[in-house]
Amino acid sequence: MSNLENNKLIAEFMGQWNVHDTNGYWECSNCGEQWSAMMGENELPQIHSECLPDLILHAKYHTSWKWLMPVVEEMHTFGCEVVISSNGVTTIYAPSGEVLAEESSEEDDHMHDATYKAVVTYIKEHFNKI
Questions:
Q1: pLDDT at 60 over 80
Q2: Is the whole model's pTM more than 0.85, yes or no?
Q3: Alpha-carbon gap, residue 38 to 87, rounded angstroms
Q4: Which of 33, 46, 65, 80 has its CA 20 to 30 A from that of 92?
């Protein structure tokens, strides 16, 4: 799957979040609704489900920790433990200790890349009906 397809999968898993910055405002180009860009980093506005395609085009889960870490935090609400190691391996464990996903990367930003891949693997294997 492409980054676009994987980002869509993650966005659907997370619920529709839009962080498209336009001229000092977060804006949904589908409906035009705007929020102040002065919001804190953890205050990403939710958008309408019909606006999800706009989010997908601008999603940066594959390149940004700011986008990816809320996904990791959401996985914790399911009781998962996400272990991100500095050697480029990310493992996602079930509450029972079972390995649900494990990915590695040799990319320059290997910790982020491995975490992105592990999140996508987890969602595909455990939330494949999204």
A1: yes
A2: no
A3: 35
A4: 46
